[in-house]
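[step 3/7] fold_predict: job queued, chain A
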Amino acid sequence: MEFNEKTLSRNDLYEGRILKFHVDKVELINGRTSTRECVDHPGGVSVAVLTERNEILFVRQFRYPYKEVVLETPAGKLEPGEDPFEAMKREQLEETGTTGSRYIDMGKLYPSPGYSNEIIYLYACRLETSGKTQFDEDEFLETEKIPVDEAVRMVMNGEIPDSKTQVLVLKTARLLKDGKI
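[step 4/7] structure written:
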């Protein structure tokens, strides 16, 4: 069976600084029609930076949609045409003041495939150098180090609700266990 939907029409509703919204009319595989509400997003990156003591660098920041402070791995959005690997290194330096070595591509994540085309590119690395953070003017973060085993416990206990961070913590723990990072 072919799982494909044919776009019959597109109604662009809004174009903001980051997001675009549109509603499409589609033909389903059974010949019926339906609508799809879509959010277009430029994509993002995130990195698990692992210290020599096997701690992961995290940032805490207020996330307005949830009205709470969220613990996350360093992350940011892609600029148009930007290479995800270069964007990740940029975000790592801005948010943690660090550079890495032995970078590993950890794949990509679809955070909300039911309505958004956002892709988050995931990486892990070993900490190489530490320096001064370079926050954007509208960015307010605190960084902290958490041992990998503690971070895994936090993920498993629901203390880290951010999906990209959960995936990176668990994948990094597995790489560490397997001696691959």
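[step 5/7] annotate
The chain has a mean pLDDT of 96.
The longest strand covers residues 98-109.
exit 0
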